[in-house]
Specification:
It contains seven helices and seven strands, in the order E-H-E-H-E-H-E-H-E-H-E-H-H-E. By secondary structure, it is α/β, with parallel strands linked by helices. Strands 3-2-1-4-5-6-7 form a seven-stranded parallel beta sheet, with helices on both faces. Helix 1 packs parallel to helix 2. The protein is globular, with a radius of gyration of 19 Å. Bound molecules: beta-D-glucopyranose. Beta-D-glucopyranose (BGC) binds next to loops.
């Protein structure tokens, strides 16, 4: 089939199932991009949501409003996930307002790209601090609360669920983005090691590994037709991912529908990890 004969892009139209009613969720970095879409999807599915942000209070308030419009409770909370004191304070605030936590979406992340030999220690450290250490700090607080509270059968089969937002770059090397790829590779084994350790407490820990999703982090990769066409050479499914694609995956993974899923990276990438170059080469 030639490129011209490819079928048109049709986006999924899905019914919202309220599979998370009664659950309390925290989404880090929820004021934009993937975090925003996941927070709204959780809210639509019945969860009450803490909308974390580090800057962009107005955007965070819009997310809070969107969640409240679908009948769930929502609360904005400013905290830098790379700062232990701020993470501890955020969890204390959540506990005071919502009573507990059932779902942590470890989403906050950033890129600070540079050719390897020009990368500063500050760029290296900032990306590792937010993308990896931030996920550690939030996961640790969540596991402490999950263990303290245990399973509440009317709420969920599990004592708690953690979803780490990883990336296809937990397995695909990425020149010019060494700090970012290293942070996501770290997230993969951190997630699996935590999952192995806390599974007996009925705590599920998984990752979502998105491919190219249309968000502010990668505007350069999709904003012009030329950039979009170049990106599509890396995506066998021939469309960019939308933040809602990740929102739907997160709802399923956090719900009891995925109760026996533990320690996996769920790639939501239109086939980016299928080595598309080998479709015609090799
Ligand atoms: C990065 C994006 C990139 C995508 C696919 C993501 O993890 O944040 O900038 O477009 O991976 O390469």
């Amino acid at each position: 089939m030639s490129e011209e004969q490819l079928p048109q892009v049709v986006m999924p139209q899905c019914q919202v199932e309220r599979v998370l009613v009664g659950q309390k969720a925290l989404v880090t970095g929820a004021n934009s991009g993937i975090g925003k879409a996941v927070a709204i999807a959780l809210g639509h599915s019945g969860a009450d949501v803490v909308v974390n942000y580090v800057s962009g209070a107005d955007q965070a308030q819009e997310v809070v409003d969107a969640i409240q419009q679908c009948g769930s409770h929502a609360l904005g909370c400013q905290a830098d996930v790379s700062r232990e004191d701020q993470v501890v304070a955020m969890f204390a605030k959540m506990k005071a307002e919502f009573g507990t936590i059932d779902i942590l979406i470890n989403n906050a992340g950033l890129q600070q790209d540079a050719p390897f030999d020009e990368m500063t220690l500050a760029e290296w450290n900032r990306v590792i601090d937010v993308n990896l250490t931030g996920q550690f700090l939030c996961a640790r607080e969540a596991v402490r609360e999950f263990k303290r509270r245990g399973v509440v059968p009317d709420v969920s089969c599990a004592a708690g669920k953690i979803i780490c937002m990883s990336s296809v770059h937990e397995v695909i090397p990425w020149a010019g983005h060494v700090n970012y790829a290293a942070s996501k590779g770290g997230v993969m084994l951190m997630m699996k090691s935590i999952a192995q350790e806390v599974a007996p407490y009925r705590i599920r820990v998984n990752s979502i590994a998105p491919g190219a999703i249309r968000t502010p982090i990668n505007t350069d990769a999709w904003q012009t037709p030329e950039a979009y066409d170049a990106l599509m050479t890396l995506v066998p499914y021939k469309r960019i991912g939308e933040p809602e694609d990740i929102g739907r995956a997160a709802v399923w993974l956090a719900s009891d529908q995925a109760d026996y899923v533990n320690g996996i990276s769920l790639f939501v990438d239109g086939g980016m990890t299928l080595y598309p170059g080998f479709a015609t080469g090799g």
